[in-house]
């Protein structure tokens, strides 16, 4: 339920206005901001969404004009999408590696290279501004000539350099290894390619999906979601938004709630990690009586706002689900657990640079704990759907296998024939596994799905 429009396209550049007073030259403030924010992602593992939040984000970003914000967003997402390729090329152009601690210089070079290689920014302007940027920073001043030489060469030899890195992995080495191990080299390669372009915007509609697809010039996907073409303007201005006819939800994110079945009338379902509420809304619409929990007050407020707009009701509870107990056990529970989010790399290309393998292993343990608790909240025979947006089986398949083996949960397998157009997403054991390589592009609509895992489990009788 992300109502804000995100774009990777650089806005037309214009002189920095108003707040960017420090800028000596038009466009310089945006480049300086891009390099510093890139450093915050790469060196301090700060999330890009957090940094670029228009209200609570970094002042470095918030102080920019709207147009510069668009440019900075484009530079950052592009730098992150193509980082290993950019670094490879930069290394190949330098006679000696940069000094170990020269992080600000590295960030400057990467963000300038992203503009030259992949963005619609005139090369000479990207080079000139990068040199000026180096001169304005005492840490980088002595490298200004190097910046000039390397970027000019990058610009001159762009075509041949780009062909050198075509097909080269865009992931950190550790993630490449994990993907290869989980999916095999070919699928891992396809998932790698998927990160190079931004994800499409998908909508879940309350009803009349075909009509809405027509009205919004969207493509009705086999998942039931509507995929939009390039949206120009705010998503909130589209027909149906104000009246609460639909909400933004990746097509894969709309699948886990469907594992309970289409008609949930009379069922009491607890949505344990509910905010911002996309899946809660689906469960309510299917007829369930929903209790929605989240431990974040801000996010629960967003969930309530979203449900209000959609005209839907749920009982909401601000609580850590691990401390939540109930006298009357629920018929079913959805646990859409906090995870590494590696399935959302097309939308969040910072994820792989802000998460480490150790963190993923720790998150898998948290999810296992949450799932064990979720199973105690439903009646014997009750269903628990576990889901997350990770591509790593440690957080999904492997963890669920342990609980099934222990006898704490029984799998209620999905049948591929119940998922027309998504048969490949049903695993041999009957779980749902989507990847960004699924759903081919068609008629100008982008392809791809977020990487999601979902298992339908039953509490044994
Ligand atoms: C992946 S998001 C859920 C997305 C949501 N199901 C949807 O479809 O819109 C995970 C949510 O779990 C919440 N969360 C994480 N740990 C929790 C816990 N122990 N108890 C309750 N909520 C938790 C987070 O605040 C976050 O909102």
Automatic annotation (TrEMBL):
Keyword Metal-binding attached: no
Residues in SAM-dependent MTase RsmB/NOP-type domain copies: 163-460
CDD domains: AdoMet_MTases
Domain of life: Bacteria
Record has NADP as a keyword: no
Residues holding S-adenosyl-L-methionine: 273-279, 294, 336
SUPFAM superfamilies per record: NusB-like (SSF48013), S-adenosyl-L-methionine-dependent methyltransferases (SSF53335)
Key words of the record: Methyltransferase, RNA-binding, S-adenosyl-L-methionine, Transferase
Composition-biased stretches (Basic and acidic residues): 1-19
Region annotation Disordered: where it falls in the sequence: 1-26
Pfam families: Methyltr_RsmB-F, NusB
Residues at the catalytic site: 389
PANTHER family per record: NOL1_NOP2_SUN FAMILY PROTEIN _ ANTITERMINATION NUSB DOMAIN-CONTAINING PROTEIN, NOP2 YEAST -RELATED NOL1/NOP2/FMU SUN DOMAIN-CONTAINING
Family stated for the protein in its record: Belongs to the class I-like SAM-binding methyltransferase superfamily. RsmB/NOP family.
Protein name: MFS transporter
Organism name: Xaviernesmea rhizosphaerae
Biological classification of the source: Bacteria, Pseudomonadati, Pseudomonadota, Alphaproteobacteria, Hyphomicrobiales
């Amino acid at each position: 339920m992300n109502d804000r429009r995100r774009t990777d396209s650089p806005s037309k550049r214009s002189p920095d206005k108003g707040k960017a007073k420090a800028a000596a030259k038009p466009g310089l403030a945006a480049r300086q901001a891009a390099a510093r924010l890139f450093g915050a992602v790469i060196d301090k593992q700060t999330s890009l969404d957090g940094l670029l939040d228009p209200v609570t984000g970094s002042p470095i970003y918030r102080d920019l004009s709207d147009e510069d914000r668009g440019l900075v967003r484009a530079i950052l997402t592009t730098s992150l999408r193509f980082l290993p390729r950019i670094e490879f090329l930069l290394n190949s152009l330098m006679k000696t590696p940069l000094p170990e601690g020269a992080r600000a210089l590295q960030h400057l070079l990467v963000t300038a290279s992203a503009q030259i290689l992949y963005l619609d920014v005139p090369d000479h302007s990207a080079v000139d501004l990068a040199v000026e940027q180096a001169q304005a920073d005492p840490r980088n001043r002595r490298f200004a000539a190097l910046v000039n030489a390397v970027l000019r060469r990058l610009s001159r030899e762009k075509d041949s350099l780009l062909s050198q890195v075509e097909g080269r992995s865009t992931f950190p080495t550790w993630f490449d290894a994990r993907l290869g191990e989980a999916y095999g080299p070919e699928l891992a390669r396809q998932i790698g390619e998927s990160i190079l372009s931004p994800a499409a915007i998908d909508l879940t509609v309350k009803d009349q999906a075909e009509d809405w697809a027509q009205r919004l010039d969207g493509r009705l996907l086999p998942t039931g979601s509507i995929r939009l073409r390039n949206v120009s303007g705010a998503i909130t201005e589209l027909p149906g938004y104000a009246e609460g006819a639909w909400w933004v939800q990746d097509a894969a994110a709309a699948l886990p709630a469907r594992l309970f079945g289409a008609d949930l009338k009379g069922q009491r379902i607890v949505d344990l990690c509910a905010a911002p509420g996309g899946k809660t809304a689906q469960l309510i619409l299917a007829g369930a009586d929903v209790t929605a929990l989240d431990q974040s007050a801000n996010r629960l407020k967003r969930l309530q706002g979203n449900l209000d707009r959609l005209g839907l009701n749920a009982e909401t509870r601000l609580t850590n689900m691990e401390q939540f107990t109930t006298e009357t056990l629920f018929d079913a529970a959805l646990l859409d657990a906090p995870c590494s989010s590696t399935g959302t790399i097309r939308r969040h290309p910072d994820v792989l640079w802000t998460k480490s393998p150790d963190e993923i292993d720790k998150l898998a343990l948290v999810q296992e704990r949450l799932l064990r608790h979720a199973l105690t909240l439903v009646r014997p025979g009750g269903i628990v759907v576990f889901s997350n947006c990770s591509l790593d089986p440690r957080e999904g398949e492997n963890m669920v296998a342990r609980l099934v083996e222990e006898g704490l949960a029984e799998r209620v397998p999905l049948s591929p024939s119940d998922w027309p157009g998504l048969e490949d997403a049903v695993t041999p054991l009957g779980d749902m596994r989507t990847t960004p390589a699924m759903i081919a592009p068609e008629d100008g609509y982008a392809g791809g799905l977020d990487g999601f895992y979902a298992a339908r489990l039953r509490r044994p009788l």
